[in-house]
Design goal:
There is one protein chain. The chain has nine helices and two strands. About 80% of the residues lie in helices and about 0% in strands. The radius of gyration is 18 Å and the shape is globular. The chain has about 220 residues and is mainly alpha-helical. A two-stranded parallel sheet has the order 1-2.
Length: about 220
């Protein structure tokens, strides 16, 4: 697994497919969180939203690094375990998002005027990890393993992102953003945010299983 993650990191660095989602994340952070003030939950909701979009795009890029013949070689090298290769790609995406999470936590504090508490930081971690997991889940489901044509994959990814962001009360993303934008007290949000984080983990597990099922039938 470690070798596969190192291979995926090396490949994505060589192809530079990380640049577009990374620039999008930086741009959204600059637009949504610069010169903010007051309570931190709304600012962290904005940074989590930026990470949500970025993690979806980044995961799709990671899942599309290898064409079918190259993927077959990687699977054979991994002992014929296609699930291991899939989990390595998900692990790579998650590690990349963890790096971006640090920036998402610190950038609003650097560019804004906020009163920071440990509870605020814990809430920020929960919110960004929730959005990262859902973004990775969408990216996995809308990858080449499920959709043979990239156009269909893009349309599906955009539709799922829009549903997660804008359908009122839809857990975990829209529901979490609604709570964070209307409740300034981070202490009151830790428990509901923890529930949304658990839901996001279940979504990732379900989408991963569905992707593996489709990919297994094709292989």
């Amino acid at each position: 697994m470690i070798a596969l993650i190192r291979y995926t990191f090396a490949t994505v660095l060589h192809t530079q497919r990380y640049l577009a989602p990374l620039l999008l994340f930086m741009g959204l952070m600059g637009v949504l969180t610069v010169n903010g003030s007051g309570s931190l939950p709304p600012a962290y909701a904005s940074s989590a939203g930026a990470l949500f979009v970025c993690s979806t795009w980044l995961t799709i890029a990671l899942m599309s690094l290898d064409d079918p013949p190259q993927r077959a070689i990687v699977v054979i090298t991994a002992g014929g375990q296609s699930l291991t290769v899939l989990l390595a790609a998900i692990g790579t995406a998650l590690l990349s998002c963890l790096v971006l999470m640090v920036f998402g936590l610190l950038f609003p504090l650097w560019m804004g005027d906020y009163v920071v508490t440990t509870t605020d930081l814990l809430l920020g971690v929960e919110a960004q990890l929730t959005c990262a997991l859902v973004g990775i889940a969408i990216g996995v489901l809308c990858s080449r393993l499920v959709f043979k044509r990239q156009g269909y994959a893009l349309v599906a990814a955009l539709a799922l992102v829009m549903v997660a962001l804008f359908v009122k009360g839809m857990p975990p993303v829209n529901r979490l953003f609604t709570l964070m934008s209307t409740t300034p007290d981070a202490a009151k949000l830790l428990a509901p945010a923890g529930v949304m984080l658990a839901i996001s983990a279940v979504i990732l597990a379900v989408f991963t299983a569905a992707t593996q099922f489709v990919a297994g039938r094709r292989e």
